[in-house]
Amino acid sequence: MRRGTSERVSSESEIKVAVDLSGGPVEIKTGVGFFDHMLTLFAFQARIGLVIEAKGDLWIDAHHTVEDTAIVLGAALTEALGDKAGIERYGESRVPMDETLASVVLDFSGRPYTVFLAEFKNPKLGDFDTELAEEFFQGLSRSARMTIHAQVLYGSNTHHMIEGLFKALGRAVRQAVAVTGDGVPSTKGLIDQ
What we know:
Strand order of the largest sheet: 1-2-4-3
CATH class: Alpha Beta
Number of helices: 4
Helix content: 25-40%
Distance between the termini: 18 Å
CATH superfamily: Imidazole glycerol phosphate dehydratase, domain 1
Shape: globular
CATH architecture: 2-Layer Sandwich
Strand content: 25-35%
């Protein structure tokens, strides 16, 4: 099956996410253009189907929309992975974007932890506050219960830096969710949910 859906409704946002790890349509509508672009790149590099409908309190800023989308995406990924039997579990990718080199290493371990090492010179790209990139990675890590180490090794263009991180995330997820065995990829025989 390898499909998952999740919804979240609060006073700050309404988010619906559908994930298909086997592929499918990619339709992203968050109301934040740069964020839509990043999520589309992520899904393309992960080779997953991803449908996101998000409505948030954008008259304030994009913070709640970005963070809540990450939370709902993580929950949908968790549902799609089930007990994680047969998956590779770990994924890593380094992506060059012109002058930038970005890296993401992750583990669908059941233990959420985020290391995010990137400094952005430009504080805003369109309607997207660049500090929200870290909020997205942290929200995704908590909700999908995975460890993520994301780093911009070097670079100067903020757009390239964030795009490199989202592409690397997608490629690392693709590697980690690939079915390469039979049992749960842990010597304990289970991965904490």
